[in-house]
């Protein structure tokens, strides 16, 4: 148990250090995109298997950590972490409650464009009431 706690702590500190090397605005966008996936209620499809959104977020955070300094922007994150499986080469997809299924990267690029046009406001940046 002690090894697991130590390993988790080391992993968390390393992830923080890598995230700290990204421009804060870009890290905020990446975090927002991950929140969009997590809150979507959609099914994430990876290598033909279905996963709930929380599992997808966990997987993409792990890929982001492994990508390290190669991912400096939200677009880098989408292209480098959220397009396809490194294992199989299969495209990541997302299926919504209405049954519509899309490529995850396309959906994330649309969400990012809305954010950058000011049509979507990150929760962290929203004014407090």
Shape: globular
Uncertain segments: 10-18, 124-129
Strand content: 5-15%
Over the alpha carbons, how many angstroms does the gyration radius reach?
15 Å
How many separate domains make up the residues?
A: 1
Q: Mean of residue pLDDT?
A: 86
How is the largest sheet built, in terms of strand order?
A: 2-1-3-4
Q: Tally of extended strands?
A: 4
What's the end-to-end separation, in Å? 43 Å
Oligomer: single chain
Major sheet size, sense and barrel closure? 4 strands, antiparallel
Report what the structure shows.
The chain has 129 residues and is an alpha+beta fold. It has one domain (2-123). It has five helices and four strands, in the order ααββααββα. It has helices at residues 2-20, 24-38, 53-67, 74-81, 104-116, and strands at 43-46, 49-52, 93-95, 101-103. The protein has a four-stranded antiparallel β-sheet with strand order 2-1-3-4. Helix 2 (24-38) packs antiparallel against helix 3 and helix 2 (24-38) crosses helix 5. The longest helix has 19 residues, at 2-20. The radius of gyration is 15 Å and the shape is globular. Mean pLDDT is 86; it is low at 10-18 and 124-129.
């Amino acid at each position: 148990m002690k090894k697991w706690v130590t390993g988790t702590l080391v992993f968390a500190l390393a992830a923080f250090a890598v995230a700290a090397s990204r421009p804060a605005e870009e890290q905020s966008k990446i975090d927002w995109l991950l929140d969009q996936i997590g809150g979507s209620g959609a099914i994430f499809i990876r290598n033909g298997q279905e996963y709930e959104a929380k599992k997808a977020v966990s997987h993409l955070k792990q890929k982001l950590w492994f990508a390290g300094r190669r991912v400096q922007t939200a677009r880098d994150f989408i292209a480098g972490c959220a397009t396809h499986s490194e294992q199989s080469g299969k495209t990541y997809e997302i299926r919504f409650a209405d049954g519509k299924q899309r490529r995850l990267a396309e959906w994330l690029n649309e969400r990012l464009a809305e954010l950058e046009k000011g049509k979507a406001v990150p929760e962290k940046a929203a004014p407090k009431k």
